[in-house]
Amino acid sequence: MHLQPTDSGRLAAFDSIRLVHRTWRAENPIGGVLIAHGFAEHGMRYGHVIDVLVPAGFSVMTFDQRGHGESGGRRGHVDRFGDYGDDLTMMIAFARERLPGPLVLLAHSMGGLIATTVAAAGKLDVDHLVLSNPALAVKVAVPQWKIMAARTASRWLPHVRIPTDIPPEHISRDAQEVRAYIDDPLVFNEATTRWGGEFLAAQDAIADAASSVKTPHIFVQLGSADMIADPVVNVDFFGKTGSSDCRVEVYADCYHELYNEMDSARAPILDDLRDWLVQRAQRVAA
Residue 35 and residue 265: Cα distance in Å, rounded? Predict the structure, then answer.
């Protein structure tokens, strides 16, 4: 049984779509962590992370992206990818008001693409950035007809839904986590053509922008066997950032959802995450 939130609420975005947020408060906090989840999932799927970080002294906030989880908006749809970035910027400002500093953004998959895009634009107002298998490039083979639909039909038929066809077994080697993902009523497996077009355009735009990512402290955690986000692209990209402190760690044989991997793999991944955050929080306190 994971730790339960101490409080929750809804925050209205720029277009009045209401985003659900939840907070877990540490007793003697040394920092705050905002979590930005990936595509088709939601903020309550980070129980293993929260169970480790809260006892370590970090108050944690999650939010459901627009069109995801319990937040408003059409499922699996976004009018423009920049809407996600605007939402993230708003949530960071909100987290700074509600959580103790220093503030960390932990972003997974699509959340990582959003965070990296905002960082490259010089608008990511966080002290530290942690990325889990950011979706800068897809590893899974996408049929050409889907790419064409995303890049062309999204303008004229933006709400047409297309199955993602990503096997749930690709998220983790832990069969229980895969079953929980399949059975989760808030998880979905379709996207609109507009979402697809915006997602591909965001990946194209970030491809050569590594030197513009200058967040002072970055920790990138990757699975060598990730079949959804391409780990080779991530290693190359984050080896070229403008950050003064960027650590890239690749975990052998791990799949896409590192924090939901099998116990033997998940434990050292979460230990690395906690230790990296504690060390930087202690530097600030000193």
Answer: 21
Task: Say how many C-beta atoms besides its own lie within 10 A of residue 225's C-beta.
Answer: 15
What domains are defined for the chain? 7-285 (3.40.50.1820)
Burial 47-85 (b: 16+ CB within 10 A, else e): ebbbebbbebbbbbbbbbbbbbbbbbbbebbbeebebbb
pLDDT digits (tens, 9 = 90+) for 267-282: 999 999 999 999 988 7
Of 90, 91, 83, give the one whose Cα is nearest residue 66.
83
Q: Which single residue is written with the structure tokens 């306190």?
A: 285
Stated pTM of the model:
0.96
CA distances from 96 to 15, 91, 182 (A): 22, 8, 34
d(C-alpha 12, C-alpha 102), whole Å: 25
Q: Is the dihedral of CA 174, 177, 182, 187 positive or negative?
A: negative
Is residue 107 within 8 Å of 115, Cβ to Cβ? Answer: yes
